[in-house]
Design goal:
mainly alpha
């Protein structure tokens, strides 16, 4: 296991390099000159050219990439054109918002999806099963931003139970932190929770039809023990896979929801950076996202061996 984890960590380097190339190329395909955007419409061509030279934008693209790659190797991500601060500092300041939102949304998806899927699997083709799967299909059919707007209209505008925008740090006010993130987390978590419920149900139905489950029931084991100790434990591989994928999807979806609810997270930062053609900031954010995705996949792979002794990494 240790050697497997070490190899996966070594593979981070080429993955980072590939994502760095993609991020560097993608943002430069967006029309617009950062120097012209920074100076405004009234800037003279001479002023724009001087700023381009100062920012290093007049260098050939391979030279610009080499300079940025050298900064990354040294643990730096460059300096934002518009914020005037190191990119890493700007990301770290906003990262807790995005991680809090994605973490709460994943908690919602797991706490709603797994029990719903287990309950539906216990009574296949019953009214309960049909109701749970109907809600799951409905949840998968609604985009997260549309879900967010609907929740905002209901709980924020009509009932006035929850704030519709803004953010309060956990260290400043725990209750305010929950209240401001509850609607965004529900908008993200309900959609992924529907997927978790469907996968949990299908995995359990397959396992409940096996001989050893029939034997456990014939021996007189309680249904709760059959479902929890035997069936669900063997369905955990599929459940962990969908939960790991959901964590990655929620991280990307958080960017859209942050814009809808005006949360000061990394998603809002990326949108602002793209609008302003802030190359270093966009590149740094994409590199961070790639790192989180790789780490999440590594954690899921390690959990496979923890829940299933048959899984061995050579």
């Amino acid at each position: 296991m240790g050697r497997y984890i070490a190899r996966r960590l070594v593979l981070l380097a080429p993955a980072w390099l590939l994502m760095g190339v993609i991020a560097f190329a993608l943002i430069r395909l967006v029309p617009g000159d950062p120097a012209a955007v920074l100076l405004g419409m009234e800037a003279t061509p001479e002023a724009v050219e001087r700023l381009r030279e100062r920012l290093g934008l007049n260098e050939p693209l391979p030279v610009q990439f080499g300079i940025w790659l050298g900064q990354v190797v040294q643990g730096e991500l460059g300096r934002s054109f518009f914020l005037g601060e190191p990119v890493l500092q700007a990301i770290v300041a906003r990262l807790p918002v995005t991680l809090s939102l994605a973490g709460l949304a994943l908690l919602v998806a797991v706490l709603l999806g797994i029990p719903a899927g287990m309950h539906a699997a216990r009574r296949p083709n019953s009214s309960t099963d049909l109701a749970v799967m109907g809600l799951a299909v409905l949840g998968l059919s609604v985009p997260d931003f549309a879900m967010g707007l609907g929740l905002m209209l209901l709980f924020g505008v009509t009932l006035r139970w929850l704030p519709i925008s803004g953010y309060v740090a956990l260290t400043a006010d725990a209750v305010g932190w929950v209240l401001h993130l509850l609607m965004p987390a529900l908008a993200l978590g309900l959609v992924q929770g529907a997927l978790v419920a469907r996968i949990t149900r299908s995995s359990l139905l397959e396992i409940l039809a096996t001989d050893y489950i029939r034997t456990a029931r014939a021996k007189g084991l309680a249904e709760a023990a059959v479902m929890g100790r035997h069936a669900f434990r063997n369905a955990l591989i599929q459940v962990l896979t969908v939960v790991g994928n959901a964590a990655v999807v929620l991280l990307g979806g958080a960017f859209v929801i942050e814009t809808v609810f005006n949360l000061p997270g990394v998603g809002n930062l990326v949108v602002m950076a793209v609008k302003r053609r802030d190359y270093p900031l966009v590149q740094g954010c994409i590199l961070l996202i790639a790192t989180v995705v790789i780490v999440v996949n590594l954690v899921v792979d390690v959990l496979y061996a923890s829940v299933d002794p048959q899984v061995r990494y050579q």
